[in-house]
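Here comes a specimen:
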Amino acid sequence: MRKIILLYLLLGFSMLTQAQEETKYYLPRTVVKLTLLIEKTTYTPGEFNQYSERFLKMSQGSEPVNSYRILSTQMRTEGMADPDKEYIAKTDPKRNIQAVNLADDGVLLSINTEPRKTEKPTHFVAAPKPATLNSRDFMNQEILSAGSKAKMAELTAQEIYDIRESKIMLAKGQADYMPKDGEQLRIMLKQLNTQEAALLQLFEGTTICDTLEHEITLIPREAIERQLLFRFSKHFGMTDLDDLSGEPYYLTVEDLKTTPTIQVAAEPGKKDKNGEAIYVNLPGKIRLTIQNSGQTLLSDEIYAAQFGHIEMLDGNLFSKKLQTSIVLNPATGNLESIKTDVLK
């Protein structure tokens, strides 16, 4: 008998603990992620660069050069817990809150339903580069055994002219050894083009293009006018803010003073006397503009939690007579959807 009583006491204590359960949550502040795709071009002079004009009538740069340019700019938003917006979701016999779903940092995502599925950001992946040609693999014995670099350059240039002549004769159908069909002709021309490119780069040099991804994180807090955001140089790429070799790019944040509306908010001025309310953000719309002295790199409008205000939902939404589920936007904390069913 004592065991039965003890069991009931334990069950009662467990139910009481469950009834008094509290979940701490945060509303988010909106973080802006700016992603720049930057093309880096690297020029390396060829081994026979100094003889380009003499043997091939070509004028090439004699020094290695790096150059950069911005290809594209993209912007996305994320949410992060705002320590100034910490609240408690209570579960008690008078309230029908069965599940509170939070992000890893405690931001409220949904109540009584699954949160919105969000895709993880995808980062740029460069395409595989073609294999670099080794020019010496295409040199004949006469070139390799030449006694000086000047003589090697002269013989290489002559080989290039001979390759070009062979391509012309093939195209005219006047070559000594004509291919039997179109496929053979294509293969022969491809081999000649590869050989010419490998030898030509000894004079022209090589140019390699790489695409780099650079991410800038912003947390706009107030309207600002042309605040220095980053510096970019066509010779060095992204530079430090105090490095004057980079051209300045400025950020302007305009508060458009627009917020969405929801129909389930409590009456204005109504207070949560029992600490049982659920709070959401009503974000404000802002316009972000990024520009330098001559052009606008990006201009876009977004909703940001820190430019709006907090709204308390009607306390009756989570009464025992209703089954209410809500989903919040993870970046702004705005109420995205609400579903309410009357329980019988």
